Amino acid sequence: MAYETYQVVTGMVMAIQDMENDCCSKIISISDRGREVQCVVSGRTLVINNTTLRRGMRVAAFYDANLPTPAIYPPRYQAEIVTMLWRNQSVALAYFDENLLAADQSLQLNLDRQVKITTANGQSYSCSPGNAELLVYYTAVTRSIPPMTTPQKIICLLYTSPSPRDSTSS
Question: Beta strand 108-109 with 148-149: parallel, antiparallel or unpaired?
């Protein structure tokens, strides 16, 4: 699956309610920089770490901007991926090339041995994370172009050509 059409809503979960006529879906209301956005979390939504979503939790919800959305207020999107975020933590979803540069050049990754790299189901990922769609968790970035960060955690969602991780990189 390609994630280049995905957009993100980041904020605090303000409310969670059942979706009418759908026992498997919830509507989460997120306060995103002072505006309310609703996201539908269904059985097919990838919730990272199978985290139980709760009111007051800080989350990032990714949705496909190419999918039709109802013309209602507040806006309501079908969440494809939802992840919990810690205070001051950011997350990026992008394709990163073999040099760990995001396809849109919005972020350059610098890896060290402390970076935890897993698959979407939490298994250890032992290949190079380059040439892959990655969900990258980080806090600080440089003011360079492109901005650089040493991530806290990387989740490999889709890879194109795995190769063993270079044991000399730091």
Answer: parallel
